[in-house]
Amino acid sequence: MAIQSLNPTTGKVEKTFDAISKEMLETKLAKAEETFHMWKNTSFSERARLLHAAAEEMKTNARAYGEIITTEMGKPIAQATSEVEKCAWNCEHYADNGEAYLRREPIQTEASESYVQYDPLGVILLVMPWNFPFWQVFRMAAPVIMAGNTVVLKHASNVPQSALACEQVFRNAGFPEGVFQTLLVGSSDVETILRDRRVKGVSLTGSEKAGSIVAGIAGKEIKPVVMELGGSDPFIILEDADIQLTCEQAKISRLLNGGQVCISAKRFLVHSSRAEEFTSKLKDIFEGYTVGNPMDETTQMGPMSSESGLRDIARQVKESVDIGATVLTGGKQLERDGFFYTPTILTHVTPDMPAWREETFGPVATVMTFDTVDEAIELANDSSFGLGASLFTNNMKLAKEIIPRIESGMVFVNGFVKTDPRLPTGGIKRSGVGRELGFAGIRAFTNMKTVWIK
Questions:
Q1: Which residue among 117, 274, 326, 405 has the highest number of C-beta atoms inside a 10 angstrom radius?
Q2: 401 by DSSP, 3-state: which?
Q3: DSSP secondary structure string for all residues of 131-162
């Protein structure tokens, strides 16, 4: 697969890169290991100082970095700039809280002293996707590096300029050479890198297929993994929900980043008594959405990131309509250059349809109704995925009874699912293993060492 920036707004190649040689890969891995033996002995205060410098670098140059993101994958510039700023927040969070997250935990035993401490592991491989070219990298790199590890990044092959820009952030912030390195390599090289004795673990965000392959390799090598894979998140609207609020939250959750978000709501489950009101309001919102040039500050949604992504979402809609779904609005490609698809709502959806059964990675909301809470929960759990879920109700007692019954790694009540540096993020079932962010994110690639002293 070519390592190139193909602008999804125009369909034209912006820049092409050669993959690094085997010799250069060896040099970079050797440097990562060499640097680790120095970096693990640096103080938390020094690591924090450099992470704050990285945050400042991104805040100062958020627009410039955002333009790289928008050019490569089509995210509206306002969202791209916000993504870079969120990465800065993440760096600041771990700079300010990393030491506390990794503080020794005393445990009372018959020993004179016993405790658990968290030691870094070594070189950690990040395999990251294109949909949030900065955020996916920094949300894992910041805690991994703060913990004393070093990082090598294999980014998606369609965002090489973003990958190199991530490395530039660390370089401009003053990090020692080798703490963070981008590897311009193809997917076929991931196995070689992961099997290398110097690489001690892997974090992957991506497809279920990619996750399964990488997890298999890591399993054979007995190396820890953290994975966030696909999602088909339910968005449950109970009878007493505030419909105006739900529609505003649904709009953001389903159309942010062109719907190309693992944790976005994809299956909208609405109490039958509120379905007409919800779909009518949501239809008006979708039809009023500004779709166009993502470099325009007023654009709300840009193109799909690739032609293959456009084809896939169009297939899911067509196949679902062919067996009974109704297109309430949208359902077509825009007649212009680039890979644009209209915000779409499908009703009369059934569980056997691709738009329900598969992950819809695009601006398509599927709507299904229910009559009882038990039915809503059954529908919500009717998926091989278990990443996140949203629940809308004014009855907090009922909400807290429902939360344990939902099969997902995250449940948000009266809000859409989103990532936050302070909260662990991750899924169950085929949505992944392990957790990123929060205290869990920084401990993911550490040795939880038990110490017993008599």
A1: 274
A2: helix
A3: SSTTHHHHHHHHHHHHTT-EEEEEE-TT-HHH
Please, what's the b/e burial string for 398-410 (b: 16 or more CB within 10 A of its CB; e: otherwise)? ebeebeeebbbbb
Tell me the pLDDT tens digit for each residue of 255-278: 999 999 999 999 999 999 999 999
Give the N- to C-terminal CA distance of the chain in Å, as an integer. Answer: 58
Residue 367 confidence (pLDDT) above 70: yes
Catalytic residues: 228, 262
Which two structure tokens, joined as six digits, stand for 413? 């009540």
pLDDT interval class at 350 (50, 70, 90): very high
- Per the document, the length of the chain is 454
Q: DSSP secondary structure string, 259-311? A: G--TTSEEEEEEETTTHHHHHHHHHHHHHT--BS-TTSTT-SB---S-HHHHH
One-letter amino acid identity for 2? Answer: A
Domains of the chain: 3-229+431-453 (3.40.605.10), 233-421 (3.40.309.10)
Continuous H helices in 61-157: 62-73, 77-101, 135-146
